[in-house]
Design goal:
By secondary structure, the protein is of the alpha+beta class. The protein has 29 helices and 23 strands.
Amino acid sequence: MNSSEPSQLHSGHTMEPASSTLSVSDSLIMIEESHQRSAAFGLDKEIKPEFSPLHRTDLSLLIEKNQRLHTHAVPVMETLYEQIFNTHNMVLLTDANGVIMHSLGDDDFLEKANRVALSPGVAWSEESKGTNAIGTAIAEQKPMLVHADEHYLCANHFLTCSAAPIIDCQGKVIGVLDVSGDQRSYHKHTMALVRMSAQMIENQLFLSAFEDAIILHFHPRPEFIGTLMEGIASFSPSGRFLSANRVGQFQLGLSLVALQSHTFSSLFGLPVSSLFDHYRTATPGLLSLCLHNGIRVFSRAQLNRTNNAFQHVSNTTVHEPRQKEVQQDSPRLSCLRYLNTGDPQLAAVIDKVKKVLGRDIPILIVGETGTGKELLAQAIHNDSPRSKSPFVAVNCASIPETLIESELFGYTDGAFTGARKKGSVGKILQANGGTLFLDEIGDMPLNLQSRLLRVLQERLVTPLGSTQSIAVNVELICATNCDLRAMIAKGEFREDLYYRINGLVVRLPPLRERTDLEPVIEKILAAEPTDVPHVVSPEIMKLFKRHRWPGNFRQLSNLLRTAMVIAGDEREIRREHLPDDFLEDVEASKTECTGESIERNETVNIADHSIISHANLEKIKISTIQKILEENDGNVSATAKMLGVSRNTIYRHNATKK
């Protein structure tokens, strides 16, 4: 898919559309190579192509042959179509050869689609249709965007098409998901939606292919487990690697072929028996694992306890000292006393929180991204009378808007197309008796805010598709980096919900305002399992104290972990162990610190604590984000990674500036 003008794509790059995952030159090269292949097939650009769709019986046989793909793809297609409904587009599913098996489309576009046979039973391989998104995605095994005259056949120039290949657990292309429409209906986000939808199909196919295996869900950030950003890997009961989804391969840093020689132990440094030890506890939480490349991830495993092989492994487990250390450290790392490292502002926050523990007073934590809001919420739970009950965290910004309602409230069997058998218990009911933590609550859609308010007031949850309400008792903690009052004024956040969640409002200071940098660094270094205890050199500590830390503790923690890996057996972390981009940021900030310090020192006194005024804080945020965004040539993903924040945060603050 393309347009006549450059577009701002999902990745953040400004480029001529041809593929949202490729550079301009790569896209042009791929289109040109596809045109050369089309000519070699003997296709004439000017002729009107002949169509010979499969007979209905043959089409039925094709669908039956691809039954697993068809079954898992159709519900996702329906959801995708709801998102592009009434935009002169249609959603298509093909097999590995580009033969369309299923389609959904707007009535006003179907007539045009029929003219070029965008309909079930017709093949859209490059051999039959020349350069087109479906056929070229199969040929290149990459997402493809083909717009207007980028199509080889002139008859297809009125089309704009975004296609993503669907890869199975063996790394083979088994089909293509495509959105095709009138070129005038081009939208810059269509390719992103197609790629996300294809990934959803892949993940569902992956999980269904390994029902009797160990399925490990993992990500460096715990809130992304259960989302499209998570890595998924499967292992045999003995720990032999079976497969991984594409995100999992990326996080593990190895190709599917290279991973075949690995085991759970060689990838994570622990025997597979440790998983069974962990899940034999009454309420197992997320497990912290260290990848072979030194990156630490959080993980959740699915174990089929009815499998005899699992029973055998589970009964012969061996306790490993390193795994014990991880489990024993978890409670200590998340208690209020541990978090109190000498900063007066934080000490005041902890003192206030202690006074309301167990009093059924909702707590609202405000602060910039990366200041440790979830860590504080976990510590509040662990020190509360509900510590033995579940702590359920929900990041309202990371769950797609179309899924957040079912995630929160749950659903019954058959509540909607694609709903899993026996339904799903929502996050609110999962937290029953314990603590529900709603992170980034400012990103919750307005229509769900009213439902949440009703649940909080009535203490009753009604799952989707059910007429029966279920009593629920949760302690509520919310967090946000948004100005909820400003959002209320704009009609973006419900005022009645705001007053329901702000029983006690506490503000976590950003890292640049805190006075306890040294003890914080010591705790981060001590928490990392390593044979060599690391320390930061005096020179680097001075440098750290000068830095403004736009990504706050998330940035600091990631930086220290990287430095520890680079330092290796050397005890002292020095300048040569720090990433070049961080050192460049420090040098660049020296020239700006004078002007920014004036802005930073404009304060307002609230509750006898001197803090940065919100207006100036927002200016600093937007300025910092815009600067780093420009340094990354508009790449939102790279900017978010550098700052240790979500892409939603980058989009929101960049839009605010504009």
